[in-house]
Amino acid sequence: MIGSVVSSSLRLRALVVVVAVIVMAFGVVSLRKMPVDVYPEIMPITVSVHTEALGLSAAEVEQLITVPIEADLLTGTPWVEVMRSESVPGLSSIEMEFKPGTNPMHARQVVQERLTQAHALPNVSKPPRMLQPMSSTNRVMLVGLSSKTQSLIEMSVLARWTVRPRLLGIPGVANVAVWGQRERQLQVRVDPRRLRDAKVSLIQISVPSRADVPEYAEQRASIEGIVGRINGEFGEAHWVPIRYLYRGYSRPHLSQLYRAACVGYVTPLRDGMNLVAKEYVAAQDAENPGVLVLSQFAGAAAEMKDAILTNPYWADGMARDLDRALRMPLDERKMRHARSLAIVERTTAQSWA
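Structure (tokenized):
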């Protein structure tokens, strides 16, 4: 058979040359219209949804974010064949594979339409978002860090500030994503059991402001998640460790809250004059005043020397100053308040300037 094909090709060599030229011309024309891609795309149509929730453990992410998004929002999405999810500390990842032949833009559109209902989910995280479309060759290398001597926070600092910049310095590297990191934070660790024994509650008033700024929304979600976990674990039917109030209040109502507080805990890392500190002093009962604990980095600390000045960068020192304020005798509280009130009544915004 091969011999006959060869003999026929030699006998009809002119026809063979014409067919070869036609095939080559067709190949050149097709090549110009083909998409430029080193490797053919072998991945199915995939849409990934990530939701960040700083401060939540993997179990909390699974319970509060991953399961509700899967069950309430994404179940029943058209053309989905497979749905996978993963929950790690601070991040929920959901991946959906669509049927072959599905238009990628249509797939992303139907997912985005369902994510618009995410406002009905518990407010403990950032809004869920779709990742950019990825190809089968989008990830070149995955690097994991583990240590028997370093904490998760120390490894996160190493990954963010040392490893990532060096990898980005390699020619050709477009992006380095870090997952599962723990941010270094300064916190005052309140013992809810001791608060319960002493019948002490912390009141946190957050007035809605700049809700459309992502950083503010992230802070709110993080605070509400932490408050919910502490109150859920240690609270009782008639008492909770933290009373969190996210709303604006009228001046008389706010003054009553100031007056009821045994301690005004005003501890910004950096601030201007800080009128909250002066409002707290002005609202106190002169016969049984509370104690002002004020950050030494607030502008009001320059004149309100009778407040307990604290360093917000030193967590142990803040805890010590809070304990001192709660234990302060009545005579000392009255003396400090009288001096601070005199300053508040004497100075104005004009004199401060």
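The first strand starts at residue 46 and ends at 52. The mean pLDDT is 81.
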